[in-house]
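User: Design a sequence. Structure:
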């Protein structure tokens, strides 16, 4: 049974930490982007180093006070707020922002967990290297949160998700013990992989305080194109052609549906959509290539082969960096346009690539049978991750259909499960999807996860209610 972070506990903690570690608790720390959860009050603490984090966790473990790790607050499943229960310690990593070291010759960078993703990208660029994780929230999300949720983004196809981009971690475990696993080694077969246990654990097994990250050579040539395809099946065939022609140089392969373009035109008219007539389906292809390879030439070759195979009906290859950014602006603003419309139910799903066309057809028919809903399915086709969002009929608001959210979500997630996919591709479980984990997760895996959680965090102080509901 947890106890609150009350005045007595605050007095105890203040005796062990400098005054600069304590911050006023503003509403921003109690909110999450979708407004599904509102956090209650608590004690906000912003440590400066790993030793201070250890002091906080030791005190919380001794007093059985819950801890909610807080990064950039950009998570979409409610993992950064605690809506109910005893008031927790909100442990913000916002002061731990140092880039501790860069090793360009090793393609390695060490950053503290509070470092903003955009700043890590900039530090890599300054060293002539690339840190490829790219997200819509990269100007505010933090490395610790990226690791805790195993973040993905647009470049997973080529570089992998956050788990693939991390060599080592520094973390504070639930008893306050500091684990220094900041290795720069790429081979180290010495027992269980504690790093990968903590990555994706959403702060339930400890607090990540720093990481050694993989860097890559910066592509000498980059190119982007928008191709019109007849259907998702043809898009997948085009992906195969693009990978073959570019020698694996495809960094991103994004599927775009006409509904998303229509939303953009209506709600974000300043975003230029470069089609005179909106296509039913299109793909955004991004290449990163070495010296002496022409990105524009390869994209034109992809188009020609796609055209000859009957996969592509039209296309635009960016002729400048400005135009390349304009193409990406279309894809990056689709979520913002979605927000303006207001989805009844949003889904972050992944499927085997070959199952995607049939899933989209079957799911579209099933959702249409429920009513005249609009569907915007788009996202990272190259790695099988789609954002499948269901909207109210034209001229109506999502609030009028709020009682149908669970019905729609259940239908979509049931179909995803039938197609051997995942109901959470890159956003995690948080507090939003704990019931889904129990419904669709393997009983053996869930039992093992419970054993790990209980073993490492016997008092349940670490991010209570995340992944497993407090009532489970």
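Assistant: Done.
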């Amino acid at each position: 049974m947890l106890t609150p972070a009350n005045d007595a506990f605050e007095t105890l903690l203040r005796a062990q930490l400098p005054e600069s570690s304590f911050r006023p608790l503003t509403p921003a720390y109690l909110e999450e982007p979708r407004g599904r959860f509102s956090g209650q009050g608590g004690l906000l603490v912003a440590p400066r180093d790993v030793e201070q984090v250890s002091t906080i966790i030791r005190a919380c473990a001794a007093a059985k006070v819950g801890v909610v790790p807080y990064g950039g607050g950009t998570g979409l499943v409610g993992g950064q707020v605690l809506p109910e229960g005893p008031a927790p310690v909100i442990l913000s990593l916002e002061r731990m922002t140092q880039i501790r070291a860069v090793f360009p010759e090793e393609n390695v960078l060490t950053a503290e967990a509070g470092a903003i993703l955009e700043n890590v990208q900039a530090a890599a660029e300054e060293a002539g290297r690339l840190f490829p994780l790219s997200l819509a929230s990269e100007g505010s999300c933090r490395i610790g949160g990226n690791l805790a949720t195993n973040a993905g983004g647009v470049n997973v196809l080529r570089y992998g998700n956050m788990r693939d981009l991390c060599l080592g971690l520094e973390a504070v475990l639930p008893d306050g013990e500091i684990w220094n696993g900041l290795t720069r080694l790429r081979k180290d077969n010495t027992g269980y992989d504690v790093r990968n246990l903590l990555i994706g654990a959403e702060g339930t097994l400890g607090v990540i305080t720093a990481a050694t990250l993989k860097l890559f050579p910066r592509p000498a040539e980059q190119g982007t194109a928008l191709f019109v395809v007849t259907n998702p099946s043809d898009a997948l065939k085009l992906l195969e052609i693009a990978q073959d022609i570019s020698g694996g140089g495809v960094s991103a392969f994004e599927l775009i549906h006409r509904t998303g373009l229509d939303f953009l035109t209506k709600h974000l008219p300043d975003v230029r959509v470069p089609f005179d007539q909106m296509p039913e389906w299109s793909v955004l292809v991004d290449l990163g290539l070495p010296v002496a390879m022409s990105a524009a030439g390869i994209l034109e070759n992809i188009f020609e082969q796609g055209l000859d195979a009957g996969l592509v009906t039209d296309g635009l290859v960016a002729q400048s960096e400005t135009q390349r950014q304009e193409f990406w602006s279309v894809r990056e603003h689709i979520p913002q346009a979605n927000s303006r419309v207001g989805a009844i139910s949003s889904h972050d799903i992944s499927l085997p690539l070959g199952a995607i066309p049939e899933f989209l057809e079957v799911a579209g028919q099933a959702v249409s049978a429920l009513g005249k809903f609009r569907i915007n399915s788009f996202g990272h086709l190259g790695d099988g991750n789609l954002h499948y969002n269901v909207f109210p009929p034209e001229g109506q608001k999502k609030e009028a259909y709020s009682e149908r959210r669970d019905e729609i979500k259940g239908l979509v997630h049931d179909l995803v499960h039938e197609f051997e996919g995942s109901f959470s591709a890159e956003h995690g479980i948080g507090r939003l999807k704990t019931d889904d984990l129990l419904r669709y997760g393997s009983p053996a895996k869930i039992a093992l996860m419970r054993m790990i959680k209980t073993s490492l965090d016997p008092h349940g102080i670490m991010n209570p209610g995340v992944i497993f509901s407090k009532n489970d």
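Residues 344 and 398 are 5 Å apart (CA to CA). The longest strand covers residues 221-229.
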